[in-house]
Amino acid sequence: MAGGRFSPALLVLLCHILFGSSSFQPALVLDMAKILLNNYCFPENLVGMQEAIQQAINSREILKISDRKTLASVLTVGVQGALNDPRLTVSFEPNFVPVMPPALPSLPTEQLIRLVRNSVKLEVLKNNVGYLRIDQIIGEETATKLGPLLRDNVWNKVANTSSLIFDLRYSTAGELSGVPFIISYFSDPEPLIHIDTVFDRPSNTTKELWTMSSIMGERYGKQKDLIVLTSKRTMGAAEAVAYTLKHLKRANIVGERSAGGSVKVEKIRIGDSGFYITIPVARSVNPITGQSWEVSGVSPSVNINAKEAVANAQNLLAVRSAIPRAIQSVSDIIRQYYSFTDRVPAFLQHLESTDFFSVISEEDLANKLNNELQSVSEDPRLMIKLTQDHPVIIEEDIEPENIPGDPAFLRKLVDTVFKVRILTGNTGYLRFDKFGDVSVMAKLGEQIAQKIWEALKDTENLIIDLRYNTGGSSASMGILLSFLQDPSQQFHFFTIYDRIQNTTTEFNTLSGLLGPPYGSKRGVYILTSHYTASAGEEFAYLMQSLHRGTLIGEITSGTLMHSKSFQVEDTDIVITVPFINFIDNNGECWLGGGVVPDAIVLAEEAVDHAHEIIEFHKEVLSLVEGTGELLEVHYAIPEVANKLSRVLLTKWAEGSYRSVVDYESLAFQLTADLQETSGDHRLHIFYCDIEPESLHDMPKIPTAQEVGYIIDTLFKIEVMPGNVGYLRFDMMADIEVMRAIGPQLIKLVWSKLVNTDTMIIDMRYNTGGYSTAIPLLCTYFFDAEPLRHLYTVFDRSTTIMTEVMTLPQIQGQRYGSTKDIYILTSQMTGSAAEVFTRAMKDLNRAKVIGEPTIGGSLSSGTYQIGNSILYASIPNQVVLSAVTGKSWEVTGVTPDVEVDAEDAVAVAIKIINLRAEIPAILEATGALVADNYAFENVGADVAEKLAAASGDYNLISSKVALETKLSADLMTLSGDKCLKTTHNIPPLPPMNPSPEMFIELIKVSFHTDLFENNIGYLRFDMFGNFEEVQAIAQIIVEHVWNKVVNTDALIVDLRNNVGGATTAIAGFCSYFFDADKQVLLDKLYDRPSGTTKELWTLPELTGVRYGSKKSLIILTSRATAGAAEEFVYIMKKHGRAMIVGETTNGASHPPETFRVGDSDVFLSIPTTHSDTAQGPAWEGAGVTPHIPVPADAALDTAKGILNKHFAGAKK
User: Fold this and answer.
1) 1138 & 1025 share domain
2) What φ, ψ does residue 513 adopt, rounded to 5°?
3) Do 928 and 1154 form a contact (C-beta atoms < 8 A)?
4) Which pLDDT tens digit goes with each residue over 754-790?
5) Nearest-CA neighbor of 221 among 263, 194, 185?
6) H or E segment to which residue 346 belongs
């Protein structure tokens, strides 16, 4: 599809090549450009073309091309390359005579019938598969004309087939208007489907093609399978049919990629020459893909030689016809056998809603079913495969062996099945290669007790060799597990749920064992290999999850257990379904997949590694105890240290450390347990072959020659625009080092920054260092008096609390306490850098910008655990906030403004620039309020108090925060919720709706009703501008006012009226007073001009007045605001209406918007207030009703009052 934009450079080059001395060439190219501009279906790609051509003509660069056909070829290459559209061709044909084929609708009916019969072939194949071949797509007019013929001879015959092969391989012509007819036959009547959009460039019109709600003949519908055949010859409207059906997911396409034709191509003569340009004048856009079949063609779902398409389509239909039965078969098997019964409904619903449109083979179907089930179940045991993919292991129920009761035979059998030895180090060894049936194990009980447990009872540890164990009965595991537990304690091992039997069996410690139990204290080591399978894997898994043993060897086989396999009906697909769930003592269902050993080694090396681990485990208890003792002595939080020590010993006693197999895994486990229990990520256990260097050795005092190098390395400074200082240092130096380099530091660094107006301190790359210099650094940013408490340090080793203060004297000049400081942080900021940052933040001396810090430790000690190669890094000091008294180290410092570290500098500069504007903004705000606020005294008071509160804006960090605080202060100081910041929203452009539109708007905006006793009801939710209302007054009177004016009483509902303009208030009030006497409604004082305007009733109105005699009730709520309150206030003041409901909002006359100085901050200031001579203003306070009731009860109350009045009048 043409997708490239026109390149002026390419056409300029083309024209440079073409334009010679012959004058026809420039004219030819210009004429061609005009044709393209007026006819090419991608006009957006032609932007700049005409200008480029004119530029080339004016350049006068000449290369003669005298041969016309050569010129046509060059033009073709140029225009195709420029517009990336191969359909554009230029030809030189001086004798060409356009031939217009007769339009089909103009042909005689007999000829049309003959044409249709020759282009349509229909037959019914085996298995009631329909075959319909159409070689020409007839248009809308012809289809309508031949409707009965098509219905009787095509569609009604096709309708009764079970599936359809729709052959478009030979369809090379047709009309796009016929596409909706065909698509409609293969879709439902409703909803209508948008199938294509066609843009015609010459007429500059766009036409949408939709399916039809009614057609002649019976629909084929959406449910039956449809295969469309295509070939390299398939072109035009047939491509549109195939493309649409494919992307509606209504048909699979079989065959070859289609030709990639066009909606409409025209051959247009270029000027009066013998040159012609072939050009696509219309284009198609599919609403689903946003693309088209033009040029690129329709790609098939099954790409195959066109000659083989019919046979392949029949095979595909056979596969697709099996899909419903296959899905039903899979659903039935899952429903009957799957062990997770609670998941079955979700599975079945998911299968029912799954789209199998893309399935074109049994392999696709198997993969699709398997993927769908896996996505829902996440159960690897539930599998669907083709039988030829992999052999499927089907586990059958094990029948107990018929074993004779002869004692000699039983002893021999036990000797054969069980291998028992005593290895070096008094370690027992037990090997058996299969778990026997429970009944068999019971019959061999005495022999097993004698052979195994009597022989092993005095060993210190036990190796159980499962490297060759391929499974057996899971139920018999309970016997072996019972021997490995303390018989005095009842212990739950596992549970088995059998879906087929619908039984749940729990396996617990067995009593009355025939032999001495091995108990739960001694070590047990399980050897595994990739042959270990089924029940062998389950036993290994349980020993690991019960913390009863250490696994050594290879990852087990992952053989599926307790599953049955079934062939899916009429397919080569097999589904494997687990019918038993194996649930461990934590209630987790094990889904197989292989057991990962604690120590992964080659199976043949497992015994040797077991001996090494046994020796290592002899140290573990002392190392765990040693870790706890170090914590109790050194950890900065004593109460937590004691808890940690107890937790570690408890975990060891519970067997949690049986999974550790070396110093590395022990260090990892101890670290995880300590951090999980304490929530302190700074606690860390590590192993090291050599003693680690102390992180806090006494620092080396630099020589005079080293001082300059240290300063250049550690400190980066800059004075930025606006006299903003920038200081970056990436390590906290020791106080002694700071004193040694102090004079040079002040000269080279500090003297250049101390006179800046604001400072940015960059700690983003400072990972810590020494804390001793923190008081010195902080002191520079505070005044000499009083000394400030920065933080408190609790040292666990000495149990001393030390308050850290600023210093009374320092070298050089102080920065002081008034200038702004911004500290930048990142996730790298740690240790002493965090303490400095937190102290400055807590004391409101700096604003922190960046990322939350790491949460490091002011001081951590590294301690050896016993005489081992394990070491513990333990925080031994706690920093307490001078403000809250709480520690914050573990969580780190949370910035005031949280942004990515890389953006911190830019954000800081933005805040600094904003802060620089704040004094002027506050001053300008005060002046605007003083000069314009409706109540002059209040305005002056607000301005004075706002100026005094300027110090409260020191922590403002964004325009939003400034506007929020300024709004809150203005409302607090004035008591007026309408005095606030606002946004400068430009007014909407004036609308000029038609009278009909006005009528519809009025019907929506006003609601009228007529109640019992001729009581009228009028509701509207906003007052309009007088000029706008005056222009449509007659319409309002006709469609609203006349419905209520002749009532005996009126309820005006303003409960949802939020205000609007007050200019129409006088006019609306006038309807409720008499014409013979003007009434002074209100006096409005305007603060900016200092004038008072009198508001009188109007002598003339559109329509009939309601008058002053009839009863009027106005309903109010807390939402009633602005102009609505002014109306209520006037009517109440003059005694013309009874007010029922809630006190109104207490807003104001419509406020005006003022820009604050040159900033982007705007104020909403009420500038007008009503007459206060007869009482307090309603602005800010609201209008109190005569009868206060909840807003939702106001209407019923009003009707009750009026009905009672009318009832009394009748008596």
Assistant:
1) yes
2) -65, 140
3) yes
4) 999 999 999 999 988 888 889 999 999 999 999 999 9
5) 185
6) helix 344-353
DSSP, res 1089: T
Query: Which of 92, 116, 138 represents a domain boundary (last residue)?
Result: 92
Which residues touch 150 (CB under 8 Å, ≥6 apart)? 116, 143, 216, 217
What is the rounded CA–CA span in Å between residue 804 and residue 790?
6
- Phi, psi dihedral angles at 269 (to 5 degrees): -70, 135
The 10s digit of each residue's pLDDT in 1144-1162 is: 999 999 899 999 988 889 9
- Show the domain range for 211: 104-262+283-304
1008 burial via Cβ count (<10 Å: 0-12, 13-18, 19+): middle
Alpha carbon separation from 978 to 239, 735, 967, 970, 1180 (Å, rounded): 65, 56, 9, 9, 8
User: Which is more confident, 5 or 816?
Assistant: 816
Whether residue 655 is found in the same domain as residue 714: no
Mean pLDDT of the region 160-184: 91
**Is it the case that residue 796 has pLDDT exceeding 70?**
yes
Q: How many CB atoms are located within 10 Å of the residue 1053 CB?
A: 23
**Alpha carbon 155 to its chain's center:** 48
Structure token digits, residue 273: 């020459």
Residues 536 and 416 in one domain: yes
The sign of the CA dihedral 334, 339, 341, 344 is negative
Of residues 1124, 1133, 1137, the one with CA closest to residue 1072: 1137
Task: Tell me the pLDDT tens digit for each residue of 599-623.
Answer: 999 999 999 999 999 999 999 999 9
CA atoms within 13 A on the CB side of 446: 8
pTM for this model (two decimals) = 0.64
pLDDT digits (tens, 9 = 90+) for 85-128: 899 999 999 888 776 655 545 555 666 566 666 778 889 999 99
Helix (H, G, I), strand (E, B) or coil at 1045: coil
Residues in contact with 528: Cβ distance below 8 Å, sequence separation at least 6, in sequence order: 466, 467, 536, 540, 551, 552, 553, 554, 555, 556, 595, 597, 603, 606
* Burial degree of 1004 (CB within 10 A; 0-12, 13-18, 19+): exposed
pLDDT category at 821 given cuts 50, 70, 90 is: very high
Instruction: Give the DSSP letter of residue 988.
Output: P
Sequence length of the chain is 1211
The pLDDT, as a whole number, for residue 704 is 66
CATH of the domain at 851: 3.90.226.10
At 100 the pLDDT is 60
pLDDT at residue 20, rounded to an integer:
39
Mean pLDDT of the chain: 86
- Could you count the other beta carbons within 10 Å of the beta carbon of residue 397? 7
β-pair partners for 1152: 1165
pLDDT, tens digit (0-9, with 9 covering 90-100), for 192-206:
999 999 999 999 899
- What is the biggest distance separating any 2 CA atoms in the chain, rounded to whole angstroms? 132
Roughly how many angstroms between the first and final C-alpha of the chain, as a whole number? 88
Which CB contacts under 8 angstroms, 24+ apart, belong to 903-907?
904/762, 904/764, 904/824, 904/825, 904/826, 904/849, 904/850, 904/851, 905/726, 905/760, 905/762, 905/824, 907/849
Shared domain check, 614 and 584: no
384: nearest Cα among 373, 400, 396:
373
Q: Residues 305-323: what's their mean pLDDT?
A: 91
Count CB atoms within 10 A of the CB of residue 866: 14
So what's the pLDDT on residue 24? 56
Tell whether 345 is covered by a domain. no
Structure tokens given for 177: 């208007």
DSSP 52-102: HHHHHHHHT-------HHHHHHHHHHHHHHHHT-TT-EEEE-TT-----PP
**445: Cβ contacts below 8 Å, ≥ 6 apart:** 514, 515
Structure tokens, 131: 């075959």
Return the closest-CA partner of residue 1069 out of 1143, 1138, 1137: 1137
